[in-house]
Design goal:
Blueprint (H helix, E strand, L loop, with lengths): L6 H5 L1 H7 L14 H10 L1 E5 L3 H12 L4 E5 L24 H12 L4 E5 L8 H5 L3 E5 L3 H13 L17 E7 L2 E7 L22 H6 L4 H17 L9 H18 L6 H8 L7 H20 L8 E5 L5 E5 L14 E5 L5 H10 L6 E7 L2 E4 L4 H7 L7 H4 L5 E12 L2 E13 L15
Parallel strand pairs: 1-2, 1-4, 2-3, 4-5, 9-13
Antiparallel strand pairs: 5-6, 6-7, 7-8, 10-11, 10-12, 12-13
Bound molecules: zinc ion.
Zinc ion (ZN) binds next to loops.
Catalytic activity: ATP + [NEDD8 protein] + [E1 NEDD8-activating enzyme]-L-cysteine = AMP + diphosphate + [E1 NEDD8-activating enzyme]-S-[NEDD8 protein]-yl-L-cysteine
Keywords: ATP-binding, Ligase, Nucleotide-binding, Ubl conjugation pathway
Family: Belongs to the ubiquitin-activating E1 family. UBA3 subfamily.
Length: about 450
């Protein structure tokens, strides 16, 4: 009679069916066997970005999928309102960093897994930090944060002289997102599939109600609330800014919205709906997070092990009415500034680093202000922190050509801020610099590029 399986064996039983056997959907280099399973444990390093609703699920799913080396980054602290779905947190954890508590809880429950937490902003980490991971799993709720991580992962990408992506420089990502009963999971393989920026139009700017509807023909409770919030408040308070965190202000809007709703015979205005509309809160649904994270964890396993074809490349899930799920294959934007070969900038060898930084500000495609510049991992100039600024300041008056070792053609990275939809956002851009008249490189036609 066979011996009882150990806890460890029974935990990997289902995983073994994927990793120890071959199949019709496996990747071209897939080699099933215990060595693969052990390699994933040993070498599969996964970074989870975000330790909120999706991040908690992702950490648990990845740990239970056999990954041993996980890290998680999140800048938030735990709030009472998180506890209904961010299941790794307890009441006594309120006020503590999410990343630290999430890592601790998963390690307590899943033996053998090591999770390193990082309680900081994603922008606070250097590029080198991100470069050490095999894959990055995103559980975020902000477009800006996704866009930033995407630009970081794409910055590692290098192209050969035929403009094909070099496989060893590809840093894959899986990205999950949920909003109420809807969600998406996507696979981003920079240089192969569209990156986040290629399909940025999937996230249109927030739709606001037209003011004329609010003022003249309200039809819903939300219309009445927005009327009180956007129109009536200003009429009555001339110049005093509305503060969504001030309960008196919120109460005033609620009372005005109720009056208006009565006037038009519209039901449904409540205090909590008023908060929801004004603060633009969409209720988070725990089951949507669980479903989307499961899809992301599975794609992570597929990408790193080759045990199956991956999602190609965008799954949408909608559980609001019945259940609808669909996979769409989006295509790359060949002119993408982020995952493409990089913006080509032609320069004179005499251009100083300071002049170069100025030029990025006015460049029509980049409009990158306050740029910090790195070359092959070395900081040429850093705007912050002050100690690094001081250390690198003397480089400003040196020609860029000299700083990068008199190479006629190379890639430099610039981190700075750019303005998108009237909002300042951090971004990272890959720049291909080419120096005129060096080593027989002919002047290239870069009209409008410099
Ligand atoms: Zn792209």
């Amino acid at each position: 009679m066979a011996a009882e399986p150990t806890a460890q064996e029974s935990r990997s039983r289902d995983l073994d069916k994927l990793l120890l056997r071959t199949g019709n959907l496996v990747g071209p280099t897939f080699e099933p066997g215990p060595a693969l399973r052990d390699d994933l444990k040993e070498y599969g390093r996964v970074l989870v970005v975000g330790a909120g609703g999706l991040g908690c699920e992702l950490l648990k799913d990845l740990a239970l999928s056999g990954f041993r080396k996980l890290e998680v980054i999140d800048m938030d602290r735990i709030e009472v309102s998180n506890l209904n779905r961010q299941f790794l947190f307890r009441l006594e954890d309120v006020g503590k960093p999410k990343a630290e508590v999430a890592a601790k809880r998963v390690m307590e429950r899943v033996s053998g897994v090591n999770i390193v937490p990082h309680f900081c902003r994603i922008e606070d980490k250097e590029l080198e930090f991100y470069s050490k991971f095999s894959i990055i799993a995103l559980g975020l709720d902000s477009i800006e944060a996704r866009s930033y991580i995407n630009s970081v992962a794409c910055s590692f990408l290098e192209y050969d002289s035929d403009d094909s992506a070099l496989e060893e420089t590809i840093k894959p990502m899986v990205d999950g997102g949920t909003e109420g009963f809807q969600g998406h999971a996507r696979v981003i393989v920079p240089g192969v599939t569209p990156c986040f920026e290629c399909t940025i139009w999937l996230f249109p700017p927030q739709v606001k109600f037209p003011l004329c509807t609010l003022a003249e023909t309200p039809r819903t409770a939300a219309h009445c609330i927005e009327y009180a919030h956007l129109i009536k408040w200003d009429e009555v308070h001339s110049g005093k800014a509305f503060d969504p965190d001030d309960p008196e202000h919120m109460k005033w809007v609620y009372n005005e919205a109720t009056k208006r709703a009565e006037l038009f015979g519209i039901p449904g205005v409540t205090y909590s709906l008023t908060q929801g509309v004004v603060k633009n809160i969409i209720p988070a649904i725990a089951s949507t997070n669980a479903i989307i994270s499961a899809a992301c964890a599975l794609e992570t396993l597929k990408i790193l092990s080759g045990c199956s074809k991956t999602l190609s490349n965008y799954l949408t899930y909608n559980g609001a009415e019945g259940l609808h799920t669909k996979v769409t294959e989006f295509v790359k934007d060949k002119d993408c500034l982020v995952c493409g070969p990089g913006v080509l900038i032609q320069l004179d060898t005499s251009i100083t680093l300071e002049k170069f930084i100025d030029l990025l500000k006015d460049h029509p495609k980049l409009q990158l202000s306050k740029a910090s510049i790195t070359h092959r991992g070395k900081s040429l100039y850093m705007q912050a922190p002050p100690v690094l600024e001081e250390m690198t300041r003397s480089n400003l008056s040196i020609p860029l050509f000299d700083l990068i070792g008199k190479i006629p053609k190379d890639v430099v990275h610039a981190t700075g801020t750019t303005t998108k939809n009237d909002k300042k956002t951090s971004c990272l851009r890959k720049l291909r610099v080419v120096f005129k008249g060096v080593d027989g490189i002919a002047d290239m036609d870069t009209a409008g590029e410099t």
